[in-house]
Amino acid sequence: MTTLAELHDCLLLDLDGTVFRGQQPTEGSVETLASVEPRTLFVTNNASRGSDDVAKNLVAMGFDAKADDVVTSAQSAARLLATQMGSGSKVLVIGTEALADEVRKVGLEPVRKFADKPDAVVQGHSPETGWADLAEAALAIRDGALWVAANVDRTLPSEVGLLPGNGSMVAALETATDQRPQVAGKPQPPLLLDALARGEFERPLVIGDRLDTDIAGANAAGLPSMLVLTGVSSVSDMIYADAAERPNYLAADLRSLNEDSGTLRVAPHPSWRVEVGPQDVTVYWTGRDAEDPLSVVRAVASTVWGSSVDGVRFAILGGDHTAHEALERWSLAGSSDQLA
């Protein structure tokens, strides 16, 4: 048996919803990451903290992490700006001081007001961002300033639920300016490519909880990926996902890194026969044991992707009692109306 961790020499790990939720590690994440051999890089779309603070927070939760193990969208956003602007150019910062610090590190001058005549706007998550901040940015963008968003996550996972993310604030500015920003973070490639530049890696794996950012970003960068179910995206989301948001592997949480890589791949499974009809998909149990409850999800997804029902809403039906129970565990059994 070859575990998934053994197949790869670098793990590009999302943080919020993957490694932890709020201030609590996800199930088994501390122990698992301490036990695997690949280089672990924490790649976060959250631009509100510097890499030092992120590493300290990870250590406080029990992880082994250094600042050099952390790659933030703030760093990538600053680098993206620096490739397009001259040294000393003014950048209006909508975000935390950590984002402003990254702007300074690349030789640009952070400012906070449109009156300072900025050449660019950089926008990252901050719980303190308000209407007045967005107004300053809107004026600059309408005046022709280059606009870079650290990320466009619409929501931010927390211990109490999903909260508004930077993407929600970006959407407000898009509405106000009729412009679209360049994006440094996932699902665009720059953040992941910046992470890979930290070493010479031949077999990286992207791991995250969001199809629209983590998995889409991996696909955009040409990297394999694994979806974990500890954050935002569900198994239903994955089955109905667009081609650009489909992972190679599916797992309940990070503990699966120490499991057989073959069983985690989104692929047909000997325990399940999946038949595609005109408007539905029917699953039958073959009589073989299915030790992993997610095996039925992988089997369904691998069958419908690229099939005649790909891209439309369809019913998923259990053709027998065992198949129905396996689907019901993931709230998949039923009609297309129930799933809509």
UniProtKB/TrEMBL annotation:
<dbReference type="GO" id="GO:0005737">
    <property type="term" value="C:cytoplasm"/>
</dbReference>
<feature type="domain" description="GCN5-related N-acetyltransferase-like">
    <location>
        <begin position="269"/>
        <end position="332"/>
    </location>
</feature>
<dbReference type="InterPro" id="IPR041065">
    <property type="entry name" value="GNAT-like"/>
</dbReference>
<dbReference type="Pfam" id="PF13242">
    <property type="entry name" value="Hydrolase_like"/>
</dbReference>
<dbReference type="InterPro" id="IPR036412">
    <property type="entry name" value="HAD-like_sf"/>
</dbReference>
<dbReference type="InterPro" id="IPR006357">
    <property type="entry name" value="HAD-SF_hydro_IIA"/>
</dbReference>
<protein>
    <submittedName>
        <fullName>HAD-IIA family hydrolase</fullName>
    </submittedName>
</protein>
<dbReference type="InterPro" id="IPR023214">
    <property type="entry name" value="HAD_sf"/>
</dbReference>
<dbReference type="Pfam" id="PF18407">
    <property type="entry name" value="GNAT_like"/>
</dbReference>
<dbReference type="Pfam" id="PF13344">
    <property type="entry name" value="Hydrolase_6"/>
</dbReference>
<keyword id="KW-0378">Hydrolase</keyword>
<dbReference type="GO" id="GO:0016791">
    <property type="term" value="F:phosphatase activity"/>
</dbReference>
